[in-house]
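Researcher: First entry.
Model:
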Amino acid sequence: MKPNLTLNLGLRYDFDHIAQPPVFNPDPQLAAAGIVTNRINNQGTAFGPRIGFAWTPMSNDRLVVRGGYGIFYGRIINATIYQALFNTGSPNGQTSYRFSGSTLPDGPVFPQILDAAPTSVSAGTATVYFFDPNFKLPQIHEFNLSLERELGWNTVLQVSYLGSLGRHLPNWTDINIAPSTSSVTYSVVDPTGQGPLKAGSTYTTNLYTGPRPNPSFGTMLEVQSTVNSSYNALAVQLNHRFSRHVQFHFAYTWSHALDFNQNQYTSTLYPSGLDPYNSKLDYGNSNFNVPNRFTFNGVFQSPWRVEGWQKWLANDWQLSPILQIQNGLPYSVTTSGYAPGGLSSSINGSGGDYRLPWVGRNTYRMPSTAIFDLSLAKTFPIRERYRLEFLAEGFNVFNHQNYTGVSSYGYYIGSDSTPTYQSSF
């Protein structure tokens, strides 16, 4: 457009064709609820516009302003599609029976099979997996704005704002649960006084009980695209291009990621929300929220040149460190056990998220991680065309213990409505 302004425009079209489930479940209650088990919505229009610019406002070109915006689309996890293809709850599907105790003699002896359905045990209710008819591909809006200033000495300082908005992100909801008509009150037991809930205090939450609206099935898990997320970050980078035997890169990022509890699993396992009728309770820090991250890497070569036989020991050394330090991943206080009188597991009987509704989501954090890697290289020149290099590398040189998971169980729910604090939390 102008000598000091460059503008880039683009448009991308995505089409993700999904194979349709081969088996249709003719259950009349499913049909009455508008649930079609042999159809997955193929989103036909997935246009992703892109725009970017670079502007040098000063005549010496030492300051550059860059920015951009784009819409991107994600794929649906194959394991999620697999569940909807083969777990339609059809009566023509495979039925499982469990034998134990007094019913054990009725079971077949391997490798024999049953000739008819056993009378001493029941098969239970089937689980149905299906897609929301309005399901959409995951969508990400990404945008950034950066200032890049050349400081001299082959060194550049860059300050950037980074933003990302997630839309139509996947989650799973059990829709075969009737609205709550009762509540349960818990009295906290904590002899140690170390838990997040005060000992002796009481907390009340909705209680989901039976029967299920559709008694022909157990869990009816609908794959939805109703989760939104946001990510905002400030990044500062200092880059020194290789000169005078030195190259280095510093980077610091402050960020905050929030969402409505996007399901992070690669398959459809269980409902992801705390309350199937109140998604607002799931809003909080993302499972991948890392507020502070610092990285450094560099290359340092020996600047001296020694002559004589000593050059074989003194010359051509190279040291390359890499340092990464960041906050640990967040996690929530969760429970074990069943709500008294509840339909399923979790503190309200819905079978969803096991965390406490009275403590914010992902308010706890694992210890910070620190990794320092180092390589040391020595090069021996052999005539003019060949070089022999000896390389020594160390990973996590200081043997810092980095946690990737912790026990999040904070309370055990007893049959008498008393969540008891577990000191191992």
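Researcher: Second entry.
Model:
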Amino acid sequence: MKKGLKIFLISFSVFIGILLISFGVVMLTVFTPERLTKIVRSQTTKYINCKTEIGEVELTFFSTFPDVGIEITGLTLINPKNGACNDTLLHAGKGIASLDIKALWKNDDLIIHKLIFEDVFVNAFTDKSGISNYDVFITDTTDTSSFVNPFKKIDLREIRLKNANISYVDETSDMHATVSNLYSDLKFQLQNEKIVLLLNAKTPSVSYSMDSIQYCSNADIKLNLPLEYNTDKEEIKLSSAKLEFNGLNANIDGTITQNGENTITDIAFNTASYSVKTLIDMIPAVYTTALDGMNVNGFVSSTGTVKGIYNENNMPLIDVLATMDKGTFEYSSLPYKLHDITGGADVKIDLNNEAESKIILKKVVAKTGQSELEASGLINYILLDDMLFDLDVKMNFHLPELEPMMPDDMNIGFEGFARGGGHVR
């Protein structure tokens, strides 16, 4: 994580260098777009090792008031790679930037009042050998140990994306990700090895797959993400982050810490009431085979945690305490349909050992016809094809509803109610 931050700072410094060249050119030449564009084009070849196209560079006054800024139109980076779906790495229809030159020269503070990109297209690609088309900066990012942040303070007061479309393919992990029509606002401050960040973003379409498993397709996502990152501890702290995923709202707090190859998660979350069917539709089909033949719906609110180590061989444990209301359940092998299901369940998911995943029912009440059932206990092996039920059941059963269970050749009728309890396994 720390190496990634350093690579980001190196690359970002190069980008800021290009902006400073533009400002320097402004100060030393006549302020004409033709002249600015020509010189900026020639200077970018010193920093970027792929084909670069720049439409026009000009001064801005009104859009960056009270600062004087730079506007670049038609910025394109072209870097063909075998296997990539497009030769264009990046295209931005327009970019506007305004820097606090005084703070930079006097105090070594990088203060960007405004950095806006409109109509952005990104096509990032990594082939099976690990070679990426976005490795285009003329700087050594393989050894970042000697890199020193040249700024005492970095304060990015407004970074905005308008209509960004992003594609990333990584053949080393068979990963495909796309983001369409992304709008985002970012505030970012780095000082004394501490990053404070606030990100607001929304997109109507996010798709992600890995190892041929489709985890989401055209997901509608909104994000409000306040976080702090301690570069010494390599720790991210989330405070009251909000995520909306296809209408499912979640509040998130906790920490994510990088320790060598291990990512240590300690996350807590809670959700508003949401549709069970909507949630099930979000889960990759490969993980819901145990639900074949079942139809489950209702409304659920939940609190939960994601704790543990994430690496190539481990996944953190997920523990969700869910409360259901107005639930329904039917199973193709049963003649009864349950309705008005209420109650709570503790869902424990262990992706390291799927046999340990289970549901603990806590006084779940359901009705079928005029009958009423109450159950508590365990449902084991919920991620496997054959679930195991171990339940204590109480019932107030309307006896005529037993008739569908009787053999067709038995002419038996029932009346009244039967009350009792039992154990189902």
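Model: Note on the second entry: The longest helix spans residues 2-28.
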